[in-house]
Amino acid sequence: MKIAMFTDSYYPTVDGVVSSVSTISRELERIGHEVLIFAPEPTDGQKVEDITKGGTYFFKSFKFRHYPQYRTAFLPSKKTKIIGSLGVDLIHTHGITTVGLKGLGAARHFDVPVATTYHTMINEAMNYYKPVPLPTGIIINLAVRYIRFFLSRADAVVAPSRPILEELVRIAPRMPYAAVIPTGIDTARFHPHGRGDAVREKYGLGDSPLLLYVGRVAYEKNIESVIRTMPLLHDRNIKLMIVGDGPARRELEEMVSSMRLKERIIFAGFIRDEELVDYYAAADAFISASKFETQGISMLEAMSCGKPVAGINYRASTDFIIDGVNGFLFDDNPHSMASKIETALEAGPEISRNARRTAEVYSKENCAMSLSRLYSRLINMDLSR
Q1: How far is CA 189 from CA 42, 89, 151, 204, 363, in A?
Q2: Which UniProt keywords apply (predicted)?
């Protein structure tokens, strides 16, 4: 099959959506499909990594004012017209804003099936990144209406986890077809035998217990609550390392300074993908307090590395973490979080083995095959509209 992926987020931005598109594209090509990428063009002369053999096509884009790492491609474009000449069998959108909307339009124009993966709870993102100066309640209401409009017009909606699928069914009950297909992780690369000695030496960690966060440093990730929980931990030698970058970093650094936690909390910044395994290896446990996740790829990567994960008892975390079996779930309060962090840091080898077994279920190979079966189903269906 020849698949055109339309994504609202792409290199040089690095986030969960970009990682998903990259992983999915490579694995689909490995099993014999051809993948084309349609994405916003880089801005300010930034270089972009072309990850596909089939090529990448860019739409003219502009920085999103409220989050400069992202670009929007809202201008009309004739680029989608090449879909007809490329012989595309199916369009898969990763996002439902500007480029996603172009993908939906191209699918309808050329009468090919369209699937969309719902990666981001954009209605909740409006709490942090309002695109227009209107009351937040009005913007959220409009966002929900738009989500309903978009999803009801896709031939299939892919949710990365069951809790997200349940939410989407409530928002858009007229979706023609919906399925849970997570983004797979590279369990061969993220493995329990990594070496974290160099990372520990670089940051002077010694034998200190290390709690790790990996992901965007953004307001919706609720990193602030993890920082506020640090003083509640009984062992004052426990360190927190925050790997990633984003719009909330400066504010969080100022918060750490004001709380006099600079000796215990490390902002490592952006780390290249190939180095991440060493950071997971250096850690004793992983933390995610984000209620925003649709899947939680970094949590699964940590589990694939055999690390005990403490995740908030909400949405995606509950889809793969079984409390006390392969990880730990905490309630949305500092004392519960502190307790589960300490339990995770002290967890024995059985938790690590179970975490790894869980991650293997979410391998990129398994998930790509599920996606391939969905594509075949859509192509062979009568999609009379």
Answers
A1: 28, 31, 34, 26, 11
A2: Glycosyltransferase, Transferase
Contact 18, 40 (CB under 8 A): no
Residue type, 207: D
* Residue 93 pLDDT exceeds 80: yes
Kindly tell me if the per-residue pLDDT of 131 is higher than 70.
Answer: no
Q: Predicted confidence band at 48 (pLDDT cuts at 50, 70, 90)?
A: low
Rounded Cα–Cα distance for residues 302 and 100 (Å): 30
User: Phi and psi for 312 in degrees, rounded to 5?
Assistant: -70, 145
**Burial class of residue 374, CB neighbours in 10 A (0-12, 13-18, 19+):** buried
What is the per-residue pLDDT across 235-258, written as a single tens digit (0 to 9) for each? 999 999 999 999 999 999 999 999
Helix (H, G, I), strand (E, B) or coil at 53: coil
Nearest of 337, 332, 320 to residue 285 by alpha carbon: 337
Specify the 3-state DSSP secondary structure of 71.
strand
Q: At what angle do helices 136-153 and 98-110 cross, to 10 degrees?
A: 30
Beta strands of the chain (E only): which ranges? 2-7, 34-40, 56-59, 62-64, 67-72, 90-94, 114-117, 156-159, 178-180, 210-214, 239-243, 265-269, 285-288, 309-312, 328-330
DSSP helix/strand/coil, 361: helix
DSSP string, 262-298: TTTEEEEE---GGGHHHHHHH-SEEEE--S--SS-HH
User: Could you say which DSSP state residue 183 is in?
Assistant: P
d(CA 156, CA 381): 11
All structural domains of the chain, each given as residue ranges with its CATH number in brackets, are 2-184+364-380 (3.40.50.2000), 197-361 (3.40.50.2000)
